[in-house]
Amino acid sequence: MVDFKKLCEKYDTPLYVYDFNKIEENFLSLKKAFKARKSIISYAIKANSNLSVLKKLASLGSGADCVSIGEIKRALIAGIPKYKIVFSGVGKRDEEIREALELDILFINLESEAEMDRVEEIAKSLDKKARISIRVNPDIDPKTHPYISTGLSENKFGVDIESAKKMYLRANKSSYLEPVGIHFHIGSQLTDIEPIKEASRIVADLTRALINIGIEIKFFDIGGGLGIVYKDEKTIKPYDYAQAIFSNLKGLDLTVVCEPGRYIVGNAGYFLTKVLYEKRTKNKRFIIVDGAMNDLLRPSLYKAYHKVEVLRNDEAKSKADVVGPVCESGDFLAKDAFLPKTKHNDIIVVYSAGAYGFVMSSNYNTRPRAAEIAVEDGKDRVIRDRESFEDLIALEKKYL
Ligand SMILES: *Cc1c(COP(=O)(O)O)cnc(C)c1O
Fold it and tell me: Percent of the chain at pLDDT above 70?
């Protein structure tokens, strides 16, 4: 158990807290589910890229799914081996492609023909053969929030089956490209297994066709997207997830690459904030806290639900919005939550904040980013300092 009160006294608020034992449990449950086949769990760093989180996952044997050269460098610094790192993302700068090739990571996921041209040209200039994988868009509705749905033809991600085939044929002829993998990722916070099953069936069929014409696909990269419980969602069990994939891979000797982000860290993280005061308008009750949308953007960006709880034993509860000090009406952490009457300095725990929490935070309103704390085996430690005002102005002050 995490002692939220003690942590707030010791480190102040707003504060991110990650339960490293829970991260380990989540990682190992997925690893175990996939153990019947060769597999790499390549954690999607964008969900939470704190170096200590990455180091913890590296120690468990995790790989990394990265969407920028910065994320690749984080993975390497944290001790994740290069042969378990994949580079995804719809737009990559020339320098990023060059560095990824020089660092010799496992493969680059391509999302367009134009991108393949760039990778080929840069590989040629380095006299290297680029290991690549193509992100196929299977045109499947993942039934999740439109902002985090990525596998529909209307989304900007990946290429359709026919274009993918053409790209593989061309890549296979190139002296500078080596098509080793195939990739799909249909969306995030998936809670229904059918779309995943259908997508993997479509992509597995394409893989068979490619292997039959002599293209040596070795990696079947199923993306991430496994959902978690924020409220009362029915989620997919890791075992059922793995079995759904395996059922479509009969007769294929492939290494399955899985890129979970949210599933690994989401429910292992908490955001702690203190009550400043309450305020009532004609028909609404507001609890104004010291954490805000710049710290945790998901409610504002996606209208995402996070469970909130006041650390106070009080039976009488009424509806309230939990809002931050930022000058935006969209600045809220919870809406219409049933909460007890609060007092100054009461602590509010925002649950399931480990994924897409701190990493999306900003300095809007000149607010320093929160500190990050790890709790492991009953001990707590700082893994990122709270930013200071001096940190915030450092890159500007010299021009005064
Ligand atoms: C965001 C992303 C992931 C991780 O998604 P989660 O929903 O956090 O599991 C994996 N792969 C790719 C390509 C992504 O863009």
Answer: 97
